[in-house]
Amino acid sequence: MRVTPQPVRRQVEERLREAIITSRFMPGEHLSDRMLGDVFGVSRGVIREAVRLLEAEGLIKVVPNRGPFVAFLSAAEATQVYEVRAVLEALAGQGFAERASTEEIAELREVFEELAATRPGTDRMVLLNLKRRFYGVMLRGCRNAYVARMLDQLLNRNSQLRATTLSDPKRLPQTIAEIRRIVEAIERRDPGAAWAACREHVHQAAQVALRILNQQARDEAAQGLEVALD
Amino acid sequence: MRVTPQPVRRQVEERLREAIITSRFMPGEHLSDRMLGDVFGVSRGVIREAVRLLEAEGLIKVVPNRGPFVAFLSAAEATQVYEVRAVLEALAGQGFAERASTEEIAELREVFEELAATRPGTDRMVLLNLKRRFYGVMLRGCRNAYVARMLDQLLNRNSQLRATTLSDPKRLPQTIAEIRRIVEAIERRDPGAAWAACREHVHQAAQVALRILNQQARDEAAQGLEVALD
DNA sequence: ATTTGTCAGATTGTCTGTCAATATGACGAG
DNA sequence: CTCGTCATATTGACAGACAATCTGACAAAT
């Protein structure tokens, strides 16, 4: 078996993507190519290529002559992301119900049970990783590389927001119930029900996420007011 | 007014994208960075950055240690693309019906009338450009940058196939009728009908496209047989 | 005190040259 | 005809350089 080692560029892409998704680089932060070159121990050329890729994925926003910045997700954009996510996730669920193997369905159930077994107060990163595994199975099993790639990008794009909503202790049981409906529809091989359950799940998540975003906006406005009154 | 000239890199990205979409570079063709550097008159670094971006858009496939190639769309992939396009286009149509301004609706009608007025035998590129203008209005008016970006990528990805199906003289009246239904639903501000009409339009296009793809596959198989018999 | 102007320093955008690792294609041996 | 071997071309990656542009600070002017 021929094993081609991954080029340095790919490793940098992955590490940088992961760093942004896990908020090791904060939204709005300036990603100077020299600085990144030092951090990752590679040349500017490699960094610039990796940045271009993550720019196309929407994780990085490049301002001409000022360089790359970690993309910031406004409330308006979040609304749009959830709108698209709803239909793509529905399509993925439908495809999975139609085309996944019985082994893949069992695997989905397995990950779901792990998620359902978490106790309140579980670390948000643990929860997010479980959910990511769930999506991993889903996107492989739906047999559509395009929906997989696009949905993956969207999930990365608002992973920070998802970590927040997912770890809301009051919301978790509700979330699990929604996902259970997805899994059950898939086990029944009912594409229509899977579609509807996925869509409903994203809609519910959007509700919570937007409430949190608006709350944050209010907080910041209040803080801005305090600062102004200093 | 501050006018920042577009960086060379952006121009190369655009020109390369356009060249691939319009089949000036054929699918499967090897895009050596030195060669592209000569063609566009820029350094390898700029080319490599542009390639990375188009790679993320799916127009270019990079093989490790062999470089970039113009992406090839198999019949299986085309099926997947149409599946995703159907829901994204439906979402765009729905959003347009809900949120576009009356001026934008008038503009959509205008472009549609131009398309409807074409006579049989019109050049495929003229038709494709009209359809691109139609989508341009649609994607701006749907007020969702994410669905716009993703749908744009998908449309670029299979523009070659679209040019073929659009210019099929037997298919054109049918196509126009489908698009008329979209425009009329939008003019009625009926999001549900717009959704359904868009979906139906893509489904129909997919039927034709896949028939053509399978026909091509048969042709190539036959040709391969001849060659084998030489 | 606020605005405007200027200037040094840092960063981006781009080019050139270099070098190791890998793939390609031709050539000759078996 | 098939299988190694080798020269050549290309990719992947690095370093250094330099003009254009942005930033932030400080000085001048209103």
From TrEMBL, chains A, B:
Gene3D superfamilies: GntR ligand-binding domain-like, Winged helix-like DNA-binding domain superfamily/Winged helix DNA-binding domain
Molecular function terms, GO-annotated: DNA binding; DNA-binding transcription factor activity
Record's keyword annotation contains DNA-binding: yes
Family matches, as PROSITE patterns: HTH_GNTR
Keywords assigned: DNA-binding, Transcription, Transcription regulation
The HTH gntR-type domain, residue ranges: 6-73
Pfam families: FCD, GntR
PANTHER family named among the record's database cross-references: GLUCONATE OPERON TRANSCRIPTIONAL REPRESSOR (PTHR43537:SF24), TRANSCRIPTIONAL REGULATOR, GNTR FAMILY (PTHR43537)
Name the UniProt record assigns to this protein: GntR family transcriptional regulator
Organism of provenance: Humitalea rosea
